[in-house]
Amino acid sequence: MESTDNATSEKSNNTNTSTTSIYTDDDELFTSGMERLKLAESELALAQQHMEGIRQQIRSKGNYEPDSLLFLCDGEDNNILSLIMGYLAVEEVGRCEVVCSMLKKQAIQYWKKLDELYFANNPTLRSPSAQSSREAVIRYKLASTLAKRIGDVGDSISRHLIDSEFDNYEDTISDVRVYDHCQGCDFPNLDFNPFRPETSDEYELFVRFCRKSDNKLLAEGFCANDREMGDTRIKLRNLDYSNWPQLAELTRLIETSEEGMMINEHNERMLDDCMKELTAIVIGVHKGTSKASLSMVQCNFGDPPSARERRSHGIDNMGDHGFCWPKGRMSARSHGAVETFRNISTFGSTTSFDNRHCDAKLGMLWENHVWNDQENGQVLKVECHWTLDCSCNCHQREY
Questions:
Q1: Which of 240, 195, 185, 193 is closest to 218 using CA atoms?
Q2: What are the beta bridge partners of residue 221?
Q3: Which of 47, 180, 327, 356 is the most buried (most CB within 10 A)?
């Protein structure tokens, strides 16, 4: 019996020893495996870091990696990439072209296609000083998009005006915000640099005409301009007026009517209807940076003055020439109280308090230009020239 117990005890001890040995072997095996895994992970991290350095080196040359999907691109004739880029917005293409030289080359083809698409049939949409298709497309998109956004403001544009207020008791004239003026919105301040003599050469002017009630596009494009007696006159002869039949008909009537015949009830009504619904937006585009900013906007060029108002706005139709002036002026600062200073010059005994931060006024003008035969004085041709006249008080004002 004692012999049997000893045998059993010895067997049990051998089993425990074997089990402990197995656990010890497993621990060591697991530990060695984890150490190897950590070494592999460390090596992988170093390899990945090294590979990222290689990728950066390739990209710094304007190239792409062999495992990139751009490897499918076969250059300028790659139809797949060209098709994809054709669906991108201008801003997205601009971001794509900085990725690598291949995408930049493809973007060049994209800009050329847009150049032809946008400007082939309407050259006034193309920036006159643009040095490339890319520059021309970007300038047009920036200017046109901003002008359209301003046109969406509609008749509320007039809530940002300032006007002259007469105080008969104090015998003063003061610049003030119009009644029910806007207290604050995303309507931007105005940039008058395109109208200042010292900075005007740095800018091009983009004009958009739209309908006040629904912002329907009537005409738009880059326009030449010149300065006359301190005012900026924007020439409108070359714009596409196919969306603006009213102006086209008015132009025809002015050119073909005999002296004074333009002044009749029918023509006056047509002129009133056209000008009351008109919004004119002027965008300044900087030639160096292509940045677009709102330079001037006014609407309702046919609003007649009331009996109590001065004849400072409305339509003055003299047949072969005329003027359409909207009410009020636009201040460089679109919101807030008008800060004034006392003008040294006075109107008789009346003291004038003028806007300190610059203001401007737009006028829609027309005039017939007549070409005569020098020998017999016969009229060879008559052309009605429309211009936007911007009268900007900015030369001696603070801004």
A1: 240
A2: 207
A3: 327
